[in-house]
Amino acid sequence: MASLPRPLVRRPTTIGAATLLALGLAVLTPITIPLLYLVDLITGSFQGRRVRTYLLITATLWTELAGVIGATALTVWFLNGRRNPDGWLSANYRLEFWWCKRHVTNLGGLAGVSITMPDPSPLAGDRSIMVARHSSHIDAIVPLLVLEDADRLARYTLKEDLKWAPAMDLVGDRTPNVWINRSTPSSEMFQQIEQLAAEMPDNSTCVIFPEGTFRTQERHEAAIERLRSSRDDLADKANGLRYVLPPRPAGTLALMRGAPDADIIVLTNIGVEGRSSIREIIATITDKRPIEVHAVRHPRSTIPTDDDEINAWLIERWIEMDDWIHHRVLERTTAPEETEP
């Protein structure tokens, strides 16, 4: 992946484009919504797939602009962090949470997305490292939301691609995160990840997505071949994964080196299958599909210390994750449909 444009070029471009699109869609709404509604009726989409898509895009853009306005206001009030640094960090954390929560609210109202976590108890405790499933744009913000509900602060390893979202580009640089470029990993990047964990306070959790990207059959096959080049036995085990990609251990190992006392939380979910891309989210926008979140906490004393053994341990956890997803998929498939009263 090519390097991103510099902030002085990128941010005016993304903020300007989002502003123009948001204003344009808002101005056109009185004309566009009735036309799209008519097309939905003619094509038999009585739940308004096109209307929902239009409104979701509009709401997403306005949420980004609200985040940018909030970030700008904080810059002025706190003199870009020079006044009251602790208050500056806390305010940006709150803005980051609001931004994520607002996007989920938009998805809930227009795309049937809701997030539930029946048992949040594994999130409680001292500082920890969270290794999470990543199969959609939607589940990228799940760790932050569930950790916030547990009164914990998230420290992310974030793909640089997210800097194209103007609000995240601004706020993500102010809260403790590391931006990563998966196509050109460097020793400096892994040092930054290690430092992110080393500086983690007790009320925080470092979050990483070891799969690195969404699963496709081609990516699964490539991951198995990469794994087979070093550990044929692990490749054989991981080859049976049905819903997730084999985890890549380098980033997790860096976090574990930085926080040698931190427990590991394995976080997974169900409900984002078939919603990996923006196109798939739009295609399923009328489906009501709750996201159920499941976590298992592993005390650090139970986890190997050798890198190769940790890699094998992660594969075993991902096999357990895959089995949990499969069982929940079967349960949802065979459960009787709820009927309206």
Molecular structure report:
There is one protein chain. This protein is an alpha/beta fold. Helices cover about 55% and strands about 10% of the residues. It folds into two domains: about 5-110; about 115-335, Glycerol-3-phosphate (1)-acyltransferase (3-Layer(aba) Sandwich). It has helices spanning about 5-40, 50-75, 85-110, 140-150, 165-170, 185-200, 215-230, 230-240, 250-260, 280-285, 305-335, and strands at about 115, 130, 155-160, 180, 205-210, 265-270, 290-300. The radius of gyration is 21 Å and the shape is globular.
Arithmetic mean pLDDT: 93
Largest sheet properties? 7 strands, mixed
CATH third-tier fold name of the largest domain: Glycerol-3-phosphate (1)-acyltransferase
Radius of gyration: 21 Å
CATH architecture of the largest domain: 3-Layer(aba) Sandwich
